[in-house]
């Protein structure tokens, strides 16, 4: 051991240290931000992602893009986590958060080249983040859950630039109605109570809010009723079939009498299960498993409508909305376990013709439910791709409206908060000692990257926009932002461009967390190759990492 160095890594391991490791990670993080930069804003561009199976996704939604792309660089994945966190916390602002993270990493690299130590940059960034949060809270405006006008503006802002913009007013109104109905007594919003369903055909303008649950599963028998009033609902965590012990075993019958007895025993078992349902007084049954044909006939005879193989999410939604208690053993079933729906009816969504045979696409609606706040946004659209993008926009809007109601504060959009924060940071930097001051100034510059990108993507001069906005904010116009359509500076609240406070604060916190974590890494040890573009090292891929490793999965986007 004294004759040479101790080897602790395997021959397959690769290691990059010091400046090379840090540079590699910074480059990978910036690459993620650059990929989605052009999608920001009302006039941002879309991306088409094509996987190896030929499936196509067309979207400008930041988190959707990053989830669909094959990102396999560890540092880049940390930046992707910024979008994921933003989506989970508030539902919108994912692109802005990633762009901020990319700008922080880019500016940090310039500081590193000036021999500023990473810990000084990290300390300065965290100090700046605290200052920004205070600025946002100071300029935020209160919003009341009953202020539908502002809430609809919040919803519309989240939809702008996405496929739902042509019907923004209609969809915003639907989203606000759905979310306000889902507010709990403690002021929080039960977003699970708001379902979003899509049926292609017709136009987006034909979308609507349905007060109840849409249930696109046909009853197990064609003769079962599709129109019931005052229905008692059973949510059954099992099947109505012959038990597995009997159907799974081999039976040996000597004559037809034995066979008949075997069949009668099976039918008797099924009849006992149906009798338990009938005695409890159920009118509608949602079963987790299958329902035997003989059992289905017995249910028809007793005027009971049944659905089989209902997934857990639908069973849970119906149970919560009707007040039903999920039952796993029919022998224990009583009337107390049943829920109630004022109506269970079939609704025809559209008439279709298949092979010259008239048919229709329909859904079952559970309506007039005892539990308030349960609703479904029914989306219509000409194609599947259009509907997918509209649904993403609506889901984002549900998240931001929920955040606005829960927190009670909103901010102007159009880059106004970023410019206000940038000015405050430059002033704050004068009071910061040491090299951290440079990091605070770098943070201020990074914050201008969002408004700059917004102007660029809208086709306007970014430098003029930043200069004019800075001058207006310096004069006290804290709510002034850029109108993406005209390039003019306008009062954002008057223009209806409004975002929840949580969108901005979450974006700042997650971007800072990701960028500072990457900055603190000075050693990358990998068991496999992370080379640029996924190339092998012997093919010229170089050391592990690089900005690549993110291009293979979705049509080589990166």
TrEMBL record:
Record has Acetylation as a keyword: no
Protein name (record): Thermosome subunit
Compositionally biased intervals (Basic and acidic residues): 12-22
Homology family: Belongs to the TCP-1 chaperonin family.
Sorted UniProt keywords: ATP-binding, Chaperone, Nucleotide-binding
MF annotations from Gene Ontology: ATP binding; ATP hydrolysis activity; ATP-dependent protein folding chaperone; unfolded protein binding
Superkingdom per UniProt: Archaea
Ranges annotated as biased composition (Gly residues): 541-558
Native species: Halosimplex rubrum
Pfam families with a match to the protein in the record: Cpn60_TCP1
Location of region: Disordered: 1-23, 530-558
Cross-referenced InterPro entries: Chaperone_TCP-1 (IPR017998), Chaperonin_TCP-1_CS (IPR002194), Cpn60/GroEL/TCP-1 (IPR002423), GroEL-like_apical_dom_sf (IPR027409), GROEL-like_equatorial_sf (IPR027413), TCP-1-like_intermed_sf (IPR027410), TCP-1_chaperonin (IPR053374), thermosome_alpha (IPR054827)
Family matches, as Gene3D superfamilies: GroEL, GroEL-like equatorial domain, TCP-1-like chaperonin intermediate domain
Signal peptide interval: none
């Amino acid at each position: 051991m004294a004759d040479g160095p101790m080897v602790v890594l395997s021959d397959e391991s690769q290691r990059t240290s010091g400046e090379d490791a840090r540079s590699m990670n910074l480059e990978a993080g910036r690459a993620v931000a650059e990929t989605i930069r052009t999608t920001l804003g009302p006039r941002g561009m879309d991306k088409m992602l094509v996987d190896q199976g030929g499936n196509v996704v067309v979207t400008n939604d930041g988190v959707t893009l990053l989830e669909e792309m094959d990102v396999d660089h560890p540092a880049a994945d940390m930046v992707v986590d910024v979008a994921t966190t933003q989506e989970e916390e508030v539902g919108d602002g994912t692109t802005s958060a990633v762009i901020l993270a990319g700008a922080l990493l880019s500016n940090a690299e310039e500081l590193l080249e000036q021999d500023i130590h990473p810990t000084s940059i990290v300390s300065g960034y965290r100090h700046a983040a605290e200052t920004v949060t205070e600025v946002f809270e100071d300029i935020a405006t209160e919003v009341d859950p009953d202020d539908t006008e502002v809430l609809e503006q919040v919803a519309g802002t989240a939809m702008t630039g996405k496929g739902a913009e042509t019907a923004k007013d209609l969809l915003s109104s639907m989203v606000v109605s759905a979310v306000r109905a889902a507010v709990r007594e403690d002021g929080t919003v039960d977003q699970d109570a708001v379902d979003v369903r899509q049926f292609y055909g017709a136009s987006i303008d034909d979308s609507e809010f349905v007060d109840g649950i849409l249930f696109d599963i046909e009853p197990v028998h064609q003769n079962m009723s599709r129109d019931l009033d005052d229905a008692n609902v059973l949510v059954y965590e099992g099947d109505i079939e012959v038990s597995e012990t009997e159907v799974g075993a081999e039976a040996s019958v000597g004559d037809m009498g034995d066979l008949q007895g075997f069949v009668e025993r099976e039918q008797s078992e099924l009849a006992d299960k149906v009798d338990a349902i009938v005695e409890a007084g159920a009118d509608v049954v949602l079963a987790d498993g299958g329902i035997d044909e003989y059992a289905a006939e017995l249910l028809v005879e007793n005027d009971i409508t049944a659905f089989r193989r209902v997934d857990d999410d639908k069973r849970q939604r119906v149970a919560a909305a009707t007040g039903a208690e999920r039952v796993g053993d029919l022998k224990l079933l009583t009337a107390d376990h049943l829920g109630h729906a004022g109506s269970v009816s079939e609704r025809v969504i559209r008439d279709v013709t298949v092979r010259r045979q008239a048919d229709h696409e329909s859904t079952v609606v559970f309506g007039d439910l005892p539990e308030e706040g349960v609703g479904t946004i029914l989306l219509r659209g000409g194609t599947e791709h259009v509907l997918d993008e509209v649904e993403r926009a609506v889901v984002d809007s549900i998240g931001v409206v929920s955040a606005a109601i829960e927190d009670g504060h909103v901010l102007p959009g159009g880059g106004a908060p970023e410019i206000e924060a940038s000015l405050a940071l430059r002033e704050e930097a004068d009071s910061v000692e040491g090299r951290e001051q440079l990091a605070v100034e770098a943070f201020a510059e990074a914050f201008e990257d969002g408004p700059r990108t917004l102007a660029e993507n809208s086709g306007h001069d970014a430098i003029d926009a930043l200069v004019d906005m800075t001058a207006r904010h310096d004069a006290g116009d804290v709510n002034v932002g850029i109108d993406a359509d005209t390039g003019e500076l306008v009062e954002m609240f008057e223009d209806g461009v409004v975002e929840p406070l949580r969108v901005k604060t979450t974006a700042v916190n997650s971007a800072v967390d990701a960028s500072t974590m990457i900055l603190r890494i000075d050693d990358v040890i990998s068991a496999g190759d992370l080379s640029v573009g996924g190339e092998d090292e012997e093919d010229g891929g170089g050391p592990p990492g690089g900005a690549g490793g993110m291009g293979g999965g979705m049509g080589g986007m990166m």
